[in-house]
Write a structure and sequence with these properties.
This protein folds into three domains: 129 residues, Multidrug efflux transporter AcrB transmembrane domain (Multidrug efflux transporter AcrB transmembrane fold, Up-down Bundle); 89 residues, Multidrug efflux transporter AcrB pore domain (Alpha-Beta Plaits), CATH 3.30.70; 84 residues, Multidrug efflux transporter AcrB TolC docking domain, DN and DC subdomains. The model has no long low-confidence stretch (mean pLDDT 84). Helix content is 49%, strand content 22%. By secondary structure, the protein is α+β, with helices and mostly antiparallel strands. α3 packs across α4, α5 packs across α10 and α11 packs parallel to α13. It has a four-stranded antiparallel sheet with strand order 2-3-1-4.
Length: 426
């Protein structure tokens, strides 16, 4: 079989060269379009369901949220297993699918099942899907360098301006905010005053909710002009909350300020973010979407940051604290330089020991062609250029060089013996 293949190739040299040139061109294109990352994505094909039920103990979360979700999500198609974790006020469900399952098809199946189990959960507990990222999706971390701005203002800038802008970048699944304070109006009730006015906590909550609302009316036409009628009732300040009436006592209204204090404060935190021991900071984590090109997404995020920085308050700028593109470039450049060195050294060794340029040319053509075909296969199987895949190509070059040297030297010797010193090279 091998002899017939060699004979066919020798009789059809032009065809073989055209095929080799086509494969090499395809390989060069594959090198340029192949996804680049520093490390391979070995995480499981999973969908995360997150449910928040603040203030409840882990055991209560386990019984009323985690257990019902786990038992109902186990019957999904192509699911390997379902894992659940309960903690204070939060529940995490990890649905692990088969490796060949499309992640977005899996997310659709999970979402369909969640729509049918919602009535089994507590009224104020709503399960949501986690981002469509992977375990190695954290590609860039940044903080806001804002001297003179308090942590609450920094977090507001991050949540209401920076986050929404960066989430529009192609390939970004989520921008997770961290650090600072999330602003909120806090009503601190006085239990003695509640008892004095014979009020309960649900009454206060109901009064605040009913007074924080807008209502729409119908269209009113006058002189061929239509007017839309609506009432504006959203609370906009702590003073408005203080003046909300709860009940009446002898025709005198009892307001929120009579039984509680209202102030602007931050949400309760479970931890802080400290930057290099210099104090607290506010920033975000950019999570890459499943199957995207890490190097390209990072570059697009940086371009977007330059655009977003123009709208930041005066003196505020971005400070990138983790950027995987540096690791990617250093890793890829190191392995690529090794590939080039191996090809050059192998060709020089053949040229030195055989002292025959045509034999060295065979190896010089064979090595880059083999590497180019390797990148075609990487693209075909969806494998990115990372430390593992490129190292595998580098190691395989040693085998290719071994085979090439043996075959070329053997052919050279047989041709030399057959021609007995005649100029067969011509």
């Amino acid at each position: 079989m091998i002899e017939k293949l060699i004979s066919f190739s020798l009789r059809n040299r032009t065809m073989v060269l055209l095929i080799a040139a086509s494969l090499f061109g395809w390989g060069v294109y594959s090198v340029q379009t192949n996804k680049v990352d520093a490390i391979p994505d070995l995480s499981e094909n999973q969908v995360i369901v997150f449910t928040e039920w603040m203030g409840r103990s882990p055991q209560l979360v386990e019984d009323q949220i985690t257990y019902p979700l786990v038992t109902n999500l186990q019957g999904l198609p192509e699911v390997k297993y379902v894992r659940g974790t309960s903690m204070f006020g939060m529940s995490f469900i990890y649905i692990i699918f088969e490796d060949e399952t499309d992640v977005y098809w899996a997310r659709t199946r999970v979402l369909e099942r969640l729509n049918s189990v919602g009535n089994m959960l507590p009224e104020d507990a709503t399960p949501t899907l986690g981002p469509d990222g992977t375990g190695v999706g954290h590609i860039l971390w940044y903080t806001l360098d804002a001297p003179g701005m308090d942590l609450g203002e920094q977090r507001a800038v991050q949540d209401w301006y920076v986050k929404f802008a960066l989430q529009n970048v192609d390939g970004v699944s989520e921008v997770a905010s961290f650090g600072g304070f999330q602003k909120q109006y806090q009503i601190t009730l006085d239990p003695n005053k509640l008892t004095y006015y014979n009020l309960s906590v649900p009454q206060v909550i109901q009064a605040v909710r009913s007074n924080n609302n807008e209502a729409g009316g119908r269209k009113f036409e006058l002189s061929d002009i239509g007017y839309i009628i609506k009432t504006t009732g959203y609370l906009e300040s702590a003073n408005e909350i203080e003046n909300i009436p709860i009940t009446t006592n002898n025709t005198i209204p009892v307001r929120v300020k009579d039984i509680a204090s209202v102030q602007m404060t931050g949400e309760t935190r479970l931890g802080i973010f400290d930057l290099n021991g210099k104090g607290e900071a506010v920033g975000g984590i950019v999570v890459m979407r499943y199957g995207e090109n890490a190097e390209e997404v990072i570059e697009n995020v940086k371009v977007k940051m330059e655009e977003v920085a123009k709208g930041l308050p005066e003196g505020v700028k971005f400070n990138i604290v983790y950027d995987r593109s540096g690791l990617i470039n250093e890793s890829i450049d190191s392995v690529r330089s090794t590939l080039i060195e191996e090809m050059i050294v192998a060709s020089l060794v053949v040229l030195l020991f055989l002292f025959h340029w045509r034999s060295a040319l065979v190896i010089m053509i064979q090595l880059p062609l083999s590497v180019a075909i390797g990148f075609i296969l990487l693209n075909a199987f969806g494998i990115s250029s990372n430390i593992m895949s490129l190292t595998g190509i580098a190691l395989s070059i040693g085998v290719i060089v071994d085979d090439a040297i043996v075959m070329v030297e053997n052919a050279y010797r047989h041709l030399a013996d057959a021609t007995k010193g005649k100029p067969w090279e011509d």
